[in-house]
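Field reference: sequence -> structure
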Amino acid sequence: MLLILGVFEILIGIIALLFSKYGKKSYMEEKKRCTAVTVGTITRFEMRKYRQDKVAGTEDYDIVYFPVYEYFVNENKYEVLGRVGIQPYFGETKEEKVDSLIGQKKEIIYNPLNCAESLVKEDNINSAFKVAKILGILFLTIGIIKLSVALIIKIFLKI
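Structure field:
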């Protein structure tokens, strides 16, 4: 059992590290092309459901709302979906957590050669990649330790 858990945790660690590396690389390449700056306004939110678990035949979902920013370049209107979602906490309503943010402004960076290619200048997107890297290293380390212990037990105790 320890052997299986170790291998499983190593796989999770590798996946998290790959996400951290290639997700950040893709984001940075896109950010490199987006050199012009304007201001965008949240006009609405898109709801996304993320499946939690299937328990006793019911399906539970986490609901996350992603802001949609509207911005103008040369009098042309564009929209960009924020990459960081908002989730109401237990007991909070959508209106309390999400709808109150409509009208909020943030900097939008866009590609001057293709104004529809844009990013919301979100400071905490890099944090997501850092967290993925830390979790990847943590899972990888724990998995290697469990795998090593399982192999030592198997070799010396011949179980």
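Note: The chain has three helices and five strands.
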